[in-house]
């Protein structure tokens, strides 16, 4: 078993494959930290939503930071758009717009923060 905390960070470009790259990084770190499959799957889903939102709204690369310690798994996605997002009301007929709704529903905690050059959207999942 690895000593905790474990961390990985990566820059993902604004390409269609970036969400897949972020999901793979989350799953890999979760496997090394012996995080359960259910938590790893939820984290992968949520990081995919945040990376997609970052690219859609900021239009450039995003930095994904993942940390696992004995208490929780924390994922932050930072982009260069300083606009703080808010979880929208869900239109059940809409094909899009559910990313932050999923984050709010599935994460133990989540939030946003302004950075020196944009914003960070983060979530935590408690370890069982």
Give the overall silhouette. globular
* CATH fold naming: Heat Shock Protein 90
Secondary-structure class: alpha+beta
Mean pLDDT: 90
Quickly name the level 1 CATH class. Answer: Alpha Beta
Spans with pLDDT under 50 lasting ≥5 residues? none
Strand order of the largest sheet: 1-2-3-5-4
- The radius of gyration computed from the alpha-carbon positions, rounded to a whole number of angstroms, is 14 Å
Q: Say how many strands there are.
A: 5
Number of helices: 3
> Biggest sheet: strands, sense, closure?
5 strands, antiparallel
CATH architecture verdict: 2-Layer Sandwich
Overview in brief:
The chain is of the alpha+beta class.
Model description:
The radius of gyration is 14 Å and the shape is globular. By secondary structure, the protein is of the alpha+beta class. Helix 1 runs antiparallel to helix 2 and helix 2 runs antiparallel to helix 3. The chain has 3 helices and 5 strands. Strand 2 and strand 3 form a beta hairpin. Strands 1-2-3-5-4 form a 5-stranded antiparallel β-sheet, with helices on one face. The protein has a single domain, classed as Heat Shock Protein 90 (2-Layer Sandwich), CATH 3.30.565.
């Amino acid at each position: 078993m690895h000593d905790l905390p474990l961390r990985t960070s990566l820059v993902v470009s604004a390409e269609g494959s970036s969400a897949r790259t972020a999901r793979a990084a989350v799953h890999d770190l979760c496997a090394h930290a012996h995080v359960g499959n259910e938590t790893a799957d939820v984290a992968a889903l949520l990081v995919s939503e945040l990376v997609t939102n970052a690219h859609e709204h900021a239009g450039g690369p995003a930095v994904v930071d993942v940390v696992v310690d004995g208490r929780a798994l924390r994922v932050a996605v930072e982009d260069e758009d300083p606009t703080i997002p808010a979880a929208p009301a869900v239109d059940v007929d809409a094909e899009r717009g559910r990313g932050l709704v999923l984050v709010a529903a599935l994460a133990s905690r989540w939030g946003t923060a302004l950075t020196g050059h944009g914003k960070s959207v983060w979530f935590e999942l408690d370890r069982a």
